[in-house]
Amino acid sequence: MAVNPFLTTIAKQHHLKIEEVLFCRLERGHFGLAQKRKGAQIYRILIDKEQLACIYREFFTFFHELAHICLGHLELTGYANDSVKKQLKEGEADLWAWEQMGILDKKGGPKPKYQVCYNCMAMRSPHCLREKGR
Ligand SMILES: [Zn+2]
Ligand SMILES: [Zn+2]
Description:
Layout lengths: L1 E2 L1 H10 L3 E6 L8 E5 L6 E5 L7 H16 L12 H19 L13 H9 L11
Parallel strand pairs: 2-4
Antiparallel strand pairs: 1-2, 3-4
Helix pairs in contact: 2-3, 2-4
The structure holds zinc ion (2 copies).
C-alpha cells in the first residue's frame, strides 16, 4: 500500500476527517473503496490503479469514493443490504464525481472533449476507449 499525497490533499479539502488515500490491490472488479474506521469518524479511500485504464478513470474512482464519504453514504444503516438504495447511491456518487471533475455541461451530459473517457467512466471500461480503432 502506498499513500498518494496529492489525492490525500484533495480529499482533506473536501472532508476534514479523511486520513489518507492509498493505492493498493483490490479484488477484481473493485476499483475503489471508501472505509470508515470502526467506532470513529475517520475515513480513508483505497484505489486499485492497476485496474484503471486511463487517468480519467483514476480521478473518477477517487471522486466517486469521496462522494460516498461527503454525501454521508457510509452512515446509512441497511445501505449494504438494500440493492435499490445502493444503486441510487452509486448513481448519486457518479454524478457528484463528474460535477467535481467539471465533466458535465449545463444539460447534464458530458462536454464534447470528455465524451470518450466519459464512456470509459460510465461503462467502467477495462480499456481506455480512446485506444480503439485498430
Ligand atoms: Zn460506489
Ligand atoms: Zn479513457
